[in-house]
Structure formats: C-alpha cells, structure tokens
Amino acid sequence: MEILTIGLILVCAALWRDVANLRARLKLLEESVLPPIPESQAADHAPWSEPETVRAPAVIVSREPVVEEAVAAAAMEAPPSDEPQPEFEGPEKRSISFEDLFGRKLPIWAGGVTLAVAGFLIVKYSIDAGLLSPLVRVILGLLFGTGLIIAAEAALRGDLVVRDPRIRQSFAGAGIATLYATILVAANLYHLIGPLTAFGGMALVTLLAGGLSLRFGAPSAVLGLVGGLAAPALVGSGPPDIPLLASYLALTVGGLCALSRDQRWLWLGASALIGGFGWGLVLLVGGALDASQSISLGLFILLLGVAFPLLLLAERGTMIRLIAGLLGCAQMAALVAVGGFAPLHWALFGLISVAMIWLSRREAGLRHLPSAGLAIALLLVGAWTSPTQPMLAIVLAGILVIYGVPDLLRLWRDDGSIVDAVHIAAIAAAILLLPMFHFYPSPDLGDDVFAALALLGAAISGGAAALGWRSPARKDDARFTLLVSTASALLIASGTLALPLWAIAPWSALVAGGLLLFGQRSDDRRLEPCAWGFVAVTLFLLVSGLDFAEWNRAVGFAKPPNLGSAVRWLIPAGIALLFARRARAAQSNAIGQPFAVLLFYVAVAQLIAPTLLPLVPALLLALLGSLVRPTPLPALIACFVLVLLWAVMPLTEWLYPAMASLYGEPFLSRSLPSLLDTVSRLLIPAIAIAAAARRAKLSLLLRVAGIASGVILGIVAAHTLFKQILGLDSLPRFVALGMAERTLWEAALAAGALIAWRLGARWTAMGLAAASLAHFAYYTLLLHNPLWSAQSVGIWLIPAYGIALASLHFSGRAGLPPTLDRARDWGKILLIPLLAISLLRQMFAGSLLTASPVGSVEDIFRSVLGAVIAIGYLQWGIRERARDWRIASLLLMLATVAKVFLFDARGLDGLLRVASFAALGFSLIGLGWLYSRYLPDSATDDAERSPAAV
Fold this sequence. Notes:
The protein is mainly alpha-helical. Among the domains are: 1-36 and 44-69 and 97-238, no CATH class; 247-366; 618-729. The protein has 36 helices and no strands. It has helices at 2-33, 57-61, 63-77, 98-129, 134-157, 159-162, 165-189, 195-216, 218-235, 242-263, 266-285, 291-310, 318-338, 343-362, 369-382, 389-410, 418-439, 447-467, 479-498, 501-521, 527-544, 548-555, 563-582, 588-605, 615-626, 633-661, 675-695, 700-726, 731-759, 762-783, 797-810, 818-845, 856-880, 883-904, 911-934, 939-943. The radius of gyration is 54 Å and the shape is elongated. It starts with a helix and ends in a 7-residue tail after the last helix.
C-alpha cells in the first residue's frame, strides 16, 4: 500500500508540472493581446477540466467588452513608429518558487492521497478495536469511497467557489483508490467474495475510473490504469484461470486504449499496452498451456499486437503500433515455443502474421512490419526442436502462402519494392536451408531430395524474376538482380548436392557464366558483379576440392593422368576466359585472363607428363605474344610468372655455385641442374619470353624487362649447357681446362653480342659485350690469372686476351661517352703488357705458368718487352694523336728503367749487364728521338684531338 501511495504522489507531481507549463504559456499569450483581467474574473484551467460550457456565463460575457475596448484603445493610442517592433518569441519558462510549490500545488494532491490513506486507517482501526464486523467495514469503505467521488462532483459544480480543478481530481482519485482497496480487503482478507466477484468489482471500478477521467481529468485514468492492470495480481490466488484472465485484461486494455483515443491521451494507451504485454509475458513464463488456454492467450496477444494499437490516434501512434506489432509477433513466437510447436500454436502465429500483413497494407508507416514477422517466423522454424518432416513442410508452405504470395502479387506493381524481393528470396532460400539444418544428413532423405528442394527454391525465385521481365520498373532497383542471383545460388546448391565431387566446381562456373550472359541479355548491369561473386565461389570450390593428386600433377610430380580432374579445371578456365572477353567491368581483363591461364595450366597438368609441364606456360606465352591481337597483357604476365616459378629451382641450383665462384671457388659442372631441366625450364622459356617481348605490342619498359628476363634465363641455360661440354667436374680438370672453358665462354658471349648488334638489338649487344669483358676481367685476370693461379694456358692466352682487346676495340662503334671511351683505351693499354708477360712466361715455363720461378734471362726479356711496348705505345699515340697512349708509354718506360736499375742490374755481371744497359740506352734514345721528331714542342698538345674511337 505504501508503494501505491508513493506512486500516486509521483504521478500527480508529474501531471502538475505539465499543467503548470501549460498555464504559464496560456497566461503569457493572453497578456500579449489583452489588458490585465481582475483576479476575481480569472480561473485556472487544466487540460482535463470541465469544458467551457459548464462555467459561469458571467465570466465569458464580461470579457467581450474588455477585449473590444482594449483593441480600440491600442489602435488609437499607438503612435506610428519606424523602429522595428520586437517579435513575439513565445512564453518564457515560468520559475517555481518554494511558496508556490509547497503552499499551492503539492498540498492539494497530498490532501487527496491523505484522504485515501485515512480511509484505510479508519478501516484498520476498526479492525484492531473490534468495533465493526467485516461486512460492515467493507460497506463503510465502499460508502467512504463513494462519498469522496460525490465530493469531487460537488467541487466540480461549485467551480466558482472552489476555483481549483485539482481539488475535485484529488477527491475522485482518493475515492477510486478507496474502492480498489475495499474490494481487495473483502476478497483477500475477509474472504467475503470470491476471486471472480472481486475481478468483476475491480473491473467496474476500472470502468468507473475511466468515466470519471472524462469528467475530472487524467488522474482518474491513471488510477484506473494502475488498478485495472494490478487487479489480477492483487486478488488472484492459486493457478490463474487464463481464459477469464485474458478476457478481463483484454477488456481493461481495450477500454483504456479507447479512452486514450477519445481524450487524445496517447500516453494512456501506450501504458495500457505495456501492461498488457507484461501480463502476456507473465503468462508465457508460467508454463505449459492446454488448448483453451493457448487460444485465449493467443487471441489476447493478437489483440495487443494488432487491434488495440488501432484505437490510438492515427497521426501520433504509428511508432506505438509498429512496436506493438513486433512485440505481439515475438510473444506469439514464444507461445509457439512454449507450446511445443504444436499445430494449434503455429495456426495462432499464422493468424498474427496475416494481421501484420493487413496492417502493413493499411498504413504506410507499418510497411516494414511483415519483414520482422517473416524473420521471426524463419528463426522460429530454425529453433524448432525435433520437427517431423510433414509438419515442417506444412509450416514452410504456410510461410510461403502467408508471406510470399502477397509479396509476389505486389512485386512488380507500382507499389512494389525491394522489400518484396527480399522476402521472396529469403523464403526461397529457407525452403532448402531449414530442412537441411534439421535433417541433413539423414538416412531417410538422400541428397537428391535436398537437391530437389534447392531447385524448388530456384524456381520460386526465378519465377518471381520472370514475372518482371517485361516490367518497365525492372531496372530501377535491385529486385530483379536479387531474385536472379538467389535462383543462381540455389542452382549451384542443387548441383553441389546432386553432382559428383569433381563436377561441382564446373557446374558453379557454368552458372556464373550463364548469369554473366543473362545479365547482358537482360541489359541489367547489376547482375555482372553477382556473376563475379559466383566466380569467387567457383574458385573456392576448386581449391577446397583440390586433392593431393591434382596438386602433385600441377607442381610436376609424376601421377597417373585423370580426365575428370582435367575437366574440373578446364571448364572454369573457359568461363574465366569468357569473363575476360565479355565482362563489362574495367578490371575484367586484369582478373579474367590470369585466372584463365592458371586454370588452363592446372587442367593440362592433369593429363601430360611432368617433364613436359614446364613447356606449357612457355609455349602459351609465345603463342599469346606472337599471334593474339590485341596483346593480352594480363595473360602474358600470368604465363611469365609460371615460367619464372618453374625456373626457380634450376636458377637456384646454378646460382649457388655461381655465387661461390665469386670468392674463387671452382665452378664445377656436377653442381649444375640436369640437362632436361636446363632445356625445359630455362632455355625454351627464355626463347619464348624473348619472342613474346619482341613481337607483342608492349610498352618500352615491359619490352625491355621481358627481353632482359629472357636474356638472363638464356645466359644461365647456355652457361649450364656449355659447362657440360668440357665436363669440369673435379679440381684436376679445372686446372687443366679452366682457361680453355673461360675463353670459350668469353668468345660465346662476344659472338652473341656481335649477332645481336647485327640484328639491331643494340642494348642486348652492349650487355653481352659487357658480360664478356666482365667475365674475362674478374675470372681470368683477377681470380684465376695463370700468372699466379694454377691454370694450364695451352693455346688460350692469345684468344683470351685477343677477344677482350677486340671487344674493347669494336665497342668504340657504340657511341660511348668520352669518359667510357678513355676507359676503353686504358683497358687496352693494360691488357697488352699482361699478354706479353704471360706469353714470355709460357716460353720459359711451359703451359702451367706457376710451375717454375722466373729466371734472370726471363727477367731481362721482361725489361726489353717493357721498353719495346713503351716505344710502340708512343708510336701509336703519335700516329693517332692520342695523348693517353703517350702518357702510358712514358709511364711504362719509367717503370722499365726503374726495374733495370733497381732489380736487373743488381744481379747481373759481364756481358749480360752490358747488354741490359745497352738495350735500355738504345730504348731511351729512340724514345727521345721519336718525341723530338714528331712532337717538336708542347704546342702540339694543345691542338690534339681527344683519343679516337678505334
């Protein structure tokens, strides 16, 4: 009882605050157009007070002349002014003082509550003192409550004296509370009446509260709401009679909603609906229900979700009707679950579903209500525990009829929308997914049954799309696309269930290709992205179904060929090519062509021998680059990547000893890849890359990159094959034939440079020539020079140095910059003395130059060679007017003189010393004569040209 009292105080305080705000706004509005009215003529007004016709006529009549006089006076006395007048901005928020709150407002409401409490206390006192019998006490309580209501009526009729509507409202509220309490005491404390009679009495009090609210205002309605909804809990004892309780609650909530509409109190109807749904939840939690109880509760929920919200104001209750519909559908679904998914409960759910669809057609603001109903229905079917196959089929058929048929009929009309297509697509998918969720895999149902369900769903979705084929609105939104895509997905699902494993991915690819062509035929651009989505599904099916045998064939391991596996990859390859050629998306070629190449490669790998497999991307690369126009660049890149992947292993096998050779380790042939791998993975792919890069219409950068890649692979392949000729597989053979092998390789590179130059491949020629010179300089001159490394020279000294000198000489025709041209001359200047010293050493030591130490005679001949070469350099420099050669001559002569005086003469005597000095003297004289003869003064240097490119 204390809780009820506190609740009444809070409700009254809230209502008082709203009334105070309204009065303040009204007063400021009147003051803006009327002169002050004597307080004797003023009266407070509340939104639920008596209509104007019951007030004293004198008050209304007395205002009319005042208004007329005020208006006339304002028109005559107001002087014209050019200054802008301030606009009326509405009433200001009125402040509430302590005196106003605790002196005028709260005491009236507190007095009404006090009267009600006083009635309870009087009854309690009579009980404690034993003054009155229970029956007399109940009668007195009823009389007291009735008297309070009569007092409220008297306050209304004496409005001129009372002048405050809150007084009559507090009397009426106290009377209603007293009547509720008296009935509760009679039923629960004294047991003078039974629960049914108490129900009836409280229903009459609730009805009385509604009627009094029409006369005295909202507080009576609040008491009727609280008391009417709390009555079943207050008077009930034992298990509730659900049909009777549902009927009582329906009458109570319905009456309050009707009162809410009549008085435009939206809050009252919303509160009544909340209380009704609260009772519905309580009854659902109570446990299992029999048939009559389920029907009663189901009809009550139907009224709460559909009928009662319609009684609310149409312009303000749309959101409430939407929420009520959702709550009603959810509680009906809970009723189905609590009832064990019995047919009766499904029928009740179907009933509320039909009502929701009717509501959505009746009011535009509720158009999305069926979407929630369909979602709840499908979730409810998914949560169904142990359904039977016939019952599940009946429920799904019911969902199709209730939700699908109305959407299908409206789909392509003017009021149709994408929501209708979503509903149909969801139902079509649910026809397959929900039975699979409950029964798959099943010993009773084979995959063909589920495949048939998938085809049924595809027929529903596709048929709905076909109905709109001629509709002009088909291209306005995604309805057609959604339905066709759903049908395609269900077709793929049917093939997944019915076809053998190897055929699933090809079937998915065919559906994707068909969807692409159908989208172009229907001129619906939205279908192409969906088709690409099914391509992704196809790739997933291919990868997920990939077995080890297919993988081993693709990477070159020997496995028996398999035609089914080849078809499994070949059909998606054809569809990928179809997308590359026919798809309208800008990225179609960039995506479709590489996938077509990769899938075709894997398909071919399932049929041919592993030794031939590296040739597939190489030949495909040459074919696409040479014959296909326009050049399919993405496909070329895919082939190029496959070629490089196959070349990784032989390149690695070659690269390891090649890197070791940079540190002086002998490059032996036993460390290289096999001849078969060299030809199939390096040589033929190199030729294919070079041919494709030369013939294809590519940018300069791609062309250069392609030719360079082909040249690199070709050089590695050629070097590997070349190493097999002499067979340097051990250190003794490396000593015996290393010089010969390096010279032959140097000659091969130089010959390749010459051929490339003749063919017009200038950069290739320069690259090969540079490689020949670099190989000679690093390996023959630095690491394995016969002068200090054990290398048998045989007849290879002159060819080795001669090829290098010829390369330096003819490289002058390449138009090198002056800096490189001078470096080329100095390279020749350095090579000639090294060749002469090596030949001289071979004359004294034989083929292995490191076999014996240098003797004194050989050392003298070295000095003579130095002087002769210096003179030769001078003559060449004078002839070609090349200053670098003359400088080299002087440097070489000075080095020879230093050698003779510091080293040679120290160990000689007799004729050898005389011969040494004589040779040196003649050389110096000849050198001076040449300078004085052909370069008489230093002015010649100023007129010299730069070194000629020869």
